[in-house]
Amino acid sequence: MIKRPDASKRLFVLDTNVLMHDPTALFRFDEHDIFLPMVVLEELDKGKKGLSEVSRNVRQVSRFLDDLLLKAIDTDAINSGIPLPGISGSELPEATGRLFFQTRQMAQDLPKELPGHQADNAILAVAISLQQAQTDTNVILVSKDINLRIKATVLGICAEDYYNDKVLDDVDLLYRGASELLAGFWEDLNRLESWMQDGRTFYQVQGEVVKDWYPNQLIYSPETENAIEAVVRTVTNDAADIELIQDYRHDKHAVWGITARNREQNFALNLLMDPDIDFVSLLGQAGTGKTLLTLAAALTQTIEHKRYNEIIMTRVTVPVGEDIGFLPGTEEEKMTPWMGALMDNLEVLNKTDGGDWGRQATNDLLQRWIKIRSLNFMRGRTFLKRFIIIDEAQNLTSKQMKTLITRAGPGTKIVCLGNVSQIDTPYLSETTSGLTYVVDHFKYWQHSGHITLLRGERSRLADFASENL
């Protein structure tokens, strides 16, 4: 890789997929300059048509570029670089770099095996030409395409992934929603008070460990004598109010006939059944009970408690294998093949002694309360008093997640389910997934809760396969 004398002076060459992934990438390189090859503009032009999220991002990029070019006086101003301003009304930091366009033909110094007529190779040729022309600048190619970054590195071009949408450096740092109290926790407290209110037990604790807690975080002590399972209600400096949680592992507290089989499932049901929590995220491997627990809580609160008017379930339609093509029918009928998890869990929840006729009648009743909706028609909608379940949320980008969550009106609860180790969307990873994004950003809010389910409860066969395959 070519070493540059001044590492602080950088010029970032952007690949098309970076702008397709994040239209605001133009303004996220702070004081550094950005270079757009002409082939990138051509690829953006090809991708502008359609109703997909990528097409909308391309059109937004085009609007940003058009606004920037309006401020350029003439061709000389374009050649000298267009100043990059911040976006008014946004939280983006003020960009102080300049935007350069390719305005002339550049030498195609590529191996014969890499013809320049391919878009990726044309971008590589531009990067090499910039390296040769600007020897005092560190030219860096930014792309979401791993193969392009590999080819760039082989050719001696510094190549990086687009990191600005990265929530965490490592997914192991992701907030888990529950923590174990260390031995001697109660003895190390500066103050401890307790009281009863509406049949619930509260404690106010004060100590250094409290500073690391978040609202609605679940805490537990594994000690047999002083075992405790509680939820953090409020945190102020080094003091916190905690409440003992309901034990849903006993049959008398069953939710739609379902009881928790482990500690994390008990935590999840407490978050799902809490009317003061508007947003819940559940992470876990396949078979940990995410969908079953959520549906049981949704049916109980919708049909029995009348807290919500209906249940809405949706998910992103990303196939695992080959796409099966056109699906006939209405919106709900088109979404039904994607909702196998819903149907499987309804069979578990639909327990009746009325034989086949009674089971079918109960199933029809449940499906009348549960609506299946497509993500494609969510823009502009507002859901009032709905229990919304977003399944396979790990396949959503942070912007798609924001679009969905902002649809919530008064009285609506949103639950996001997913497994960040099973991402099928291109250019998304464990650290850039929209599910990771919301878990990290909602952990400070007093009306949200999160829990990571650890133990699979599907079957001994599924547990063995998850651990050994």
UniProtKB/TrEMBL annotation:
Top-level lineage group: Bacteria
GO cellular component, one term: cytosol
A Pfam family assignment: PhoH
Keywords: ATP-binding, Nucleotide-binding
GO function term, MF aspect, one: ATP binding
SMART domains linked: PINc
All copies of domain PIN, residue ranges: 10-150
Keyword set includes Aminoacyl-tRNA synthetase: no
Transmembrane helix listed as a keyword: no
InterPro entries: P-loop_NTPase, PhoH, PhoH2-like, PIN-like_dom_sf, PIN_dom
Sequence similarity: In the N-terminal section; belongs to the PINc/VapC protein family.
Protein's UniProt name: ATPase
Lineage of the species this protein comes from: Bacteria, Pseudomonadati, Pseudomonadota, Gammaproteobacteria, Thiotrichales
